[in-house]
Design a protein that fits this description.
Layout lengths: L2 H33 L2 H32 L3 H31 L9 H7 L1 H21 L5 H28 L4 H33 L8 H5 L7
Helix pairs in contact: 1-2, 1-3, 1-5, 2-3, 3-7, 5-6, 5-7, 6-7
């Protein structure tokens, strides 16, 4: 293996490690929310610094790689994509921390389990975890045929998001004392919807790296046809 290939593999290893932490953060925030587990929520909050540290290290290491080796073509696309993916993973980590902070908020006690079930938040979490894992597999395998499958799940999340807002609005109308807590619940739902958007951003970066194609600004339709890896 060439020296530059070893360096690239080290960069990919770093992003993989960061990915596993972010996946764990999202899983733990889900567990904390549905089990009202304050201790697990505090663990998520305390581990956010690790996510931040990975983002800074990956950014620095990628910049150093570009400066040292002046990569071109697919190698350059990979490094540029890793920088953007690490930033996106850090933002997802921020949202997971935000969810955990809501669990330890006093207002969280005012939400009954029935409302959480009606909002279908558990389904949203499951879709997001699947998206994030599938993105990981797509990068590891350099298989962009997964892009359409991943983006279709974001459409499901958008639908659940819209439905949940209607349910929450109706609930607050009938329970005026819940409005403050309801607004915080809305922010929680918004975080989940944004995680889906960020997973889409990761897909776009993977397609850019592998296929040298840009999916941004209406590129979803391209992915529906199943993009294949360029050799």
């Amino acid at each position: 293996m060439k020296h530059t290939e070893k360096e690239l593999q080290l960069l990919k290893n770093e992003i993989n490690q960061m990915w596993q932490i972010v996946l764990s953060q999202l899983e733990k925030s889900k567990y904390a929310l549905f089990n009202r587990d304050v201790e697990t929520a505090r663990i998520v909050i305390s581990r956010e610094k690790r996510v931040d540290a990975y983002e800074l290290k990956i950014d620095s290491d990628c910049e150093n790689y570009i400066a040292l080796y002046s990569p071109v073509a697919i190698d350059l696309r990979l490094v540029l994509s890793l920088i953007k993916i690490s930033i996106t993973l850090e933002r997802i980590g921020d949202f997971a921390e935000g969810i955990a902070r809501f669990v330890i908020d006093d207002d969280f006690e005012k939400i009954d389990a029935q409302l959480l079930e009606e909002l279908q938040l558990e389904k949203m979490f499951d879709l997001l975890l699947t998206m994030l894992y599938d993105c990981f597999v797509a990068l590891e395998s350099e298989n962009t045929k997964l892009s359409g499958k991943i983006m279709s799940k974001d459409d499901e999340i958008d639908t659940l998001y819209s439905l949940s807002l209607d349910i929450l609005t109706d609930y607050m109308r009938k329970n005026p004392d819940f409005i403050r807590c309801g607004m915080k619940t809305y922010l929680l739902i918004r975080k989940l919807e944004r995680i889906g958007d960020h997973c889409n951003n990761i897909v776009e970066e993977i397609v850019f790296f592998v296929d040298a194609k840009v999916l941004k600004h209406g590129g979803k339709k391209q992915s529906e046809h199943g993009l294949s890896k360029n050799t």
